[in-house]
Amino acid sequence: MTTREATKEFRLAQWTQVIQHRADSGLSVKEFCKGNQISKDAYYYWQNQLRQKATYEISKAEDPDSIAPRGWMQLKPAAKASAATSATLDIEINGCLVKADGNTDPDFLIKICRLLRSSL
Predict the structure, then answer these.
(1) What is the pLDDT along the chain (120 residues), one digit of tens a residue?
(2) Rounded Cα gap, residues 84 and 74, in angstroms
(3) Residue 33: other Cβ atoms inside 10 A
(4) 88 within 8 A of 99, measured Cβ to Cβ
(5) Are 44 and 32 in contact (CB under 8 A)?
């Protein structure tokens, strides 16, 4: 690997962290760049470089589904949940918690929610 290639890899690694930090922050690119004294042009340039690299790596892979960043592992989809497991929905309104599942009567749930909202 040449010095130029090593430098670019190093910068890509740094910008990967910057772009991830921006995504985690919840800020817009404009707000993030302004708050961190980063040029929006530089941000978008390196984001594009990272996308190109990822696209290239996926295109050269024999099995694109097997691509995962170093240190990560590909997980197999979880087996279907058993019938004993049921999904629940927790609704909190005005400090009151209502738990509902597939057996909850929708009309009753609507009435409860309306009643709790009206007590604001």
Answers:
(1) 789 888 988 998 899 999 889 988 989 999 999 999 999 999 999 999 888 887 777 677 666 555 555 555 556 666 665 555 567 877 777 667 778 887 888 777 777 767 766 654
(2) 27
(3) 19
(4) yes
(5) no
